[in-house]
Design a protein that fits this description.
Cytochrome Bc1 Complex, Chain D, domain 2
Length: 119
Amino acid sequence: MWSFVFGVVVALLMPVAAHAEGDAAAGEKAFAPCKACHNFQKNGVGPDLKGVVGRKAGTYEGYNFSAALKNSGIIWDEANLHEWLKNPKTKVPGNKMIFQGFTDDKKIDDVIAYLKTQS
Protein backbone atom coordinates (compact mmCIF):
# COMPACT_ATOMS: atom_id res chain seq x y z
CA MET A 1 0.00 0.00 0.00
CA TRP A 2 2.70 2.50 0.99
CA SER A 3 4.69 1.80 -2.16
CA PHE A 4 1.61 2.67 -4.20
CA VAL A 5 1.12 5.94 -2.29
CA PHE A 6 4.82 6.75 -2.64
CA GLY A 7 4.61 6.06 -6.37
CA VAL A 8 1.62 8.37 -6.75
CA VAL A 9 3.36 11.16 -4.81
CA VAL A 10 6.52 10.81 -6.90
CA ALA A 11 4.47 10.84 -10.12
CA LEU A 12 2.69 14.00 -9.02
CA LEU A 13 5.89 15.78 -8.05
CA MET A 14 7.90 14.86 -11.16
CA PRO A 15 6.52 17.72 -13.30
CA VAL A 16 7.53 20.19 -10.56
CA ALA A 17 11.02 18.72 -10.37
CA ALA A 18 11.32 18.71 -14.16
CA HIS A 19 11.05 22.49 -14.18
CA ALA A 20 13.14 23.14 -11.11
CA GLU A 21 16.62 23.15 -12.66
CA GLY A 22 18.18 24.76 -15.66
CA ASP A 23 21.56 25.81 -16.96
CA ALA A 24 21.99 29.58 -16.60
CA ALA A 25 24.82 29.73 -19.17
CA ALA A 26 22.66 27.94 -21.75
CA GLY A 27 19.78 30.18 -20.70
CA GLU A 28 21.80 33.30 -21.45
CA LYS A 29 22.31 32.03 -25.00
CA ALA A 30 18.65 31.02 -25.33
CA PHE A 31 17.66 34.51 -24.10
CA ALA A 32 19.26 36.09 -27.21
CA PRO A 33 15.98 36.57 -29.15
CA CYS A 34 14.40 38.13 -26.04
CA LYS A 35 16.99 40.94 -26.14
CA ALA A 36 15.13 42.55 -29.03
CA CYS A 37 12.55 43.74 -26.48
CA HIS A 38 13.95 43.07 -22.99
CA ASN A 39 17.06 43.89 -21.00
CA PHE A 40 18.10 44.20 -17.37
CA GLN A 41 18.74 47.92 -17.12
CA LYS A 42 15.65 49.79 -18.30
CA ASN A 43 12.32 49.40 -19.99
CA GLY A 44 12.37 49.05 -23.75
CA VAL A 45 9.79 47.59 -26.08
CA GLY A 46 9.21 45.17 -23.19
CA PRO A 47 9.69 45.76 -19.49
CA ASP A 48 13.03 45.59 -17.68
CA LEU A 49 13.45 41.97 -16.49
CA LYS A 50 15.92 42.66 -13.67
CA GLY A 51 14.42 40.93 -10.64
CA VAL A 52 11.48 39.48 -12.55
CA VAL A 53 11.58 36.17 -10.67
CA GLY A 54 9.23 36.62 -7.71
CA ARG A 55 7.71 39.86 -9.03
CA LYS A 56 3.97 40.37 -9.45
CA ALA A 57 3.11 40.48 -13.15
CA GLY A 58 2.29 43.86 -14.65
CA THR A 59 3.86 45.92 -11.88
CA TYR A 60 7.29 47.10 -13.04
CA GLU A 61 7.37 50.87 -12.63
CA GLY A 62 7.36 52.96 -15.78
CA TYR A 63 6.19 50.26 -18.18
CA ASN A 64 2.74 50.36 -19.80
CA PHE A 65 1.50 46.78 -19.34
CA SER A 66 -1.67 45.41 -20.91
CA ALA A 67 -4.73 45.32 -18.67
CA ALA A 68 -4.69 41.53 -19.04
CA LEU A 69 -1.24 41.27 -17.48
CA LYS A 70 -1.89 43.93 -14.82
CA ASN A 71 -5.04 42.12 -13.73
CA SER A 72 -3.68 38.58 -13.99
CA GLY A 73 -2.68 38.28 -10.32
CA ILE A 74 0.32 36.19 -11.39
CA ILE A 75 3.54 36.10 -9.42
CA TRP A 76 6.48 35.22 -11.67
CA ASP A 77 7.61 32.06 -9.91
CA GLU A 78 9.26 29.24 -11.86
CA ALA A 79 5.99 27.45 -12.68
CA ASN A 80 4.29 30.61 -13.99
CA LEU A 81 7.38 31.66 -15.93
CA HIS A 82 7.55 28.22 -17.49
CA GLU A 83 3.94 28.40 -18.68
CA TRP A 84 4.45 31.98 -19.90
CA LEU A 85 7.61 31.19 -21.83
CA LYS A 86 5.91 28.14 -23.35
CA ASN A 87 2.95 30.16 -24.66
CA PRO A 88 2.34 33.74 -23.47
CA LYS A 89 -0.99 34.06 -25.28
CA THR A 90 -2.37 30.96 -23.56
CA LYS A 91 -1.01 31.89 -20.12
CA VAL A 92 -2.47 35.43 -20.21
CA PRO A 93 -4.94 35.94 -23.05
CA GLY A 94 -5.00 39.56 -24.20
CA ASN A 95 -1.39 40.39 -23.33
CA LYS A 96 0.59 42.42 -25.85
CA MET A 97 3.77 40.35 -26.07
CA ILE A 98 4.34 39.16 -29.63
CA PHE A 99 6.71 36.29 -28.76
CA GLN A 100 5.06 32.95 -29.58
CA GLY A 101 6.92 30.95 -26.93
CA PHE A 102 9.69 28.39 -26.70
CA THR A 103 8.80 24.82 -27.71
CA ASP A 104 11.69 23.18 -25.83
CA ASP A 105 11.05 22.69 -22.08
CA LYS A 106 14.80 22.42 -21.38
CA LYS A 107 15.40 25.78 -23.07
CA ILE A 108 12.63 27.31 -20.94
CA ASP A 109 14.22 25.92 -17.77
CA ASP A 110 17.57 27.33 -18.89
CA VAL A 111 16.09 30.79 -19.53
CA ILE A 112 14.45 30.76 -16.10
CA ALA A 113 17.80 29.80 -14.52
CA TYR A 114 19.37 32.75 -16.34
CA LEU A 115 16.60 35.12 -15.25
CA LYS A 116 17.22 34.05 -11.66
CA THR A 117 20.84 35.22 -11.97
CA GLN A 118 19.53 38.67 -12.93
CA SER A 119 17.51 39.12 -9.76
